[in-house]
Design goal:
Elements lengths: L1 E4 L2 E4 L3 H12 L4 E4 L4 H6 L5 E2 L1 H9 L4 H6 L1 E3 L1 E6 L2 E6 H4 L5 E3 L2 H15 L3 E2 L3 E6 L7 E6 L2 E6 L2 E4 L17 E16 L9 E5 L2 E9 L2 E8 L10 H12 L12 E15 L2 E2 L2 E3 L5 E2 L7 H22 L3 H28 L7 H16 L1 H12 L5
Parallel strand pairs: 1-12, 2-3, 2-13, 3-9, 6-15, 13-20
Antiparallel strand pairs: 4-8, 5-8, 6-7, 10-11, 11-12, 14-17, 14-18, 15-16, 16-17, 18-21, 19-20
Helix pairs in contact: 1-6, 1-8, 8-9, 10-11
The protein binds flavin-adenine dinucleotide and 3,4-dihydroxybenzoic acid (DHB).
Length: 394
Amino acid sequence: MRSARTQVGIVGAGPAGLMLGHLLHLHGIDSVILESRSREHVIERVRAGVLEQGTVDLMSDARVADRLRREGMRHDGIHIAFGGARHRIDMAELTGGRAITIYGQNEVVKDLIDARLGTGRPLHFEVDAVGVHDLLTPHPKIRFDHGGAAHELTCDVVAGCDGFHGICRSAIPAEHLRIYEREYPFGWLGVLAAAPPTSEELVYSLHDRGFALFSMRSPAITRLYLQCAPDENADDWSDDRIWAELITRLSTADGWAPAVGPILQKGVTGMRSFVAEPMRYGRLFLAGDAAHIVPPTGAKGLNLAMADVRRLADALDALYTSRREDALNAYSDRGLRRTWRAQRFSWWMTSMLHRSESDTPFDRRRQHAELEYLVGSRAAMTSLAENYVGVPFD
Ligand code: FAD
Ligand code: DHB
């Protein structure tokens, strides 16, 4: 067994783990990042695309925003479509100038991997059999296999940034965790298409056949989503079938429709709301999807992960520079407040914009009334806008 020592052992090189490692580096704190998948897999995984202002500001402050500034697309508003009409919500006007930026999560990950490699600090891909141990002692350990050898890494703190299916949360004894969960009876079929965006801003649509979302990645690439069954096989969806369904669900009476082009990538994701409380067990701190999942309709998951690691990095800085543990002790409660706010919003957006087989005629009419109220009331639009652009990171 090879032994090594670091200040913070980070499990997972998604947005949470990589950003945490970078923020710690800027504070002069040592870390080792361990990732089970390959570098190519992590970079190519197409996922989120909406960055809150707080995430953009964090990337700028952390000096990893050069490409984001060049290639990110600032959006001041979004469209909500139903009943054949599109309604614009001017988020910037309603929130005193706050906006979102469209920039793919895989681009964020790529920028953070480049930054990490630039620091020379350890980032190991394709590690196996990762386990976390001695979490209630001052020196928790991570054991793992890498490069044909068994390793033991002794840490001051372990950061569980290993996503929903990772091992860190399950290392916490069940009696110390409270789980809140809701599964939805549908999923999203997400596609990436070589087609220029025909709308400058996102379109969230509710059609009788279900939800659809029009988004983008660049002036040449659109990103689109269709509500489908949670266990749907993406291979059952030919390009023709995908486009027919997208055009049916998204087109509006003013003649707007997405442009058609070759489908570059497709995949199905189930949807759930999930919170594990607290986000800490001894010297193990959970961050991002390891601690909470939101359905993607509110575009909050990546942003919550970024808010978590910003708080954790600041708390660890206070620990190392002034031996103060108060921020570390407040990490979970503060994170859970933000999480529950995002949970409420994501659940609300999801229930307003999706069709469920169990809907009664009453549910349908109520859903329609909700949408009409939303687009007709400045107060309702402001409520959506301030949650969608996100409250400042605290
Ligand atoms: P992850 O990205 O899951 O990273 C965890 C990492 O840990 C992975 O690289 C994994 O391989 C690694 N890992 C797992 N187990 C181990 C182990 N045992 N050892 C070592 N490493 C391990 N969020 C938004 O904010 N805006 C959006 O627009 C949005 N849209 C989305 C659309 C889709 C289709 C999906 C699926 C998600 C979307 N999200 C969105 C959510 C967002 O992608 C996640 O919240 C985000 O990836 C969370 O980052 P993370 O670092 O916590 O977890
Ligand atoms: C995207 C993803 C989302 O979950 C969302 O709500 C909006 C946009 C995207 O991938 O662009």
